[in-house]
Amino acid sequence: MAAVTASPYVERAELRWIAPELRVLDDSPGDLLVLCAFADERPLGGLTGLVDWRLAGALSSWRIGGFSTGELGERVLYPTARRLSHPRLLFVGLGHRAEHRSDRALAIAEEVLEAARGLGVRTLTTGLFHLEVLATPLERVGPRLVHLLRSGSGLERVTIAADEESQRLVKDGIQFFGR
């Protein structure tokens, strides 16, 4: 009788929520940390800004030197050399803030998932791809992002770093819209 091996495919990833703070991130290790920034975002804010500080301004230096622009479609993979609880960081450009839309954010999230699969990532930590700054209510579009990140991605665990209000809005939307 042949041995049965477990499939690497995971139908629905475990979901965790954390505050966007370095101390909390340190206590939530994973394979890949995804950070996003707008092309016209100066200085880098939120968790991206905090991680930039932890990395001695590496992300800001990329921007100043032109290595990274934050333009739509830009992705930079960076080994963190044990300065974070994630061995790799994926820095993703969102384009210009005025052009950011929920469909664009979801498409970027899909691209991130594809890159994560290619890297063999099992545990991913990310933010909300700046959906929280859009006019579209977060409780409407946030559940779509969560569903996308959890379903069929092959990930075992997705950790989302978001402030308490954003977490509440997304969770309320999940309950209301059934996702």
Task: Describe the secondary-structure layout.
Blueprint: E1 14-18, H1 22-26, E2 32-37, H2 46-54, H3 58-65, E3 75-79, E4 88-93, H4 102-119, E5 123-126, H5 138-150, E6 157-161, H6 164-177
Helix pairs in contact: 4-5, 5-6
- CATH class bucket: Alpha Beta
The number of E-state strands comes to 6
Q: Beta-strand percentage?
A: 15-25%
* CATH homologous superfamily assignment: Leucine Aminopeptidase, subunit E, domain 1
Q: Structurally, how many domains make up the residues?
A: 1
> Which strand order does the major sheet show?
1-6-5-2-4-3
Our Rg estimate from Cα atoms comes to: 16 Å
What is the 3D shape? globular
User: What's the number of helices?
Assistant: 6
Fold-level CATH name: Leucine Aminopeptidase, subunit E, domain 1
Q: Could you name the ranges where pLDDT drops below 50 across 5 or more consecutive residues? A: 1-7
Rounded mean pLDDT is 92
* Terminal Cα span: 40 Å
CATH architecture annotation:
3-Layer(aba) Sandwich
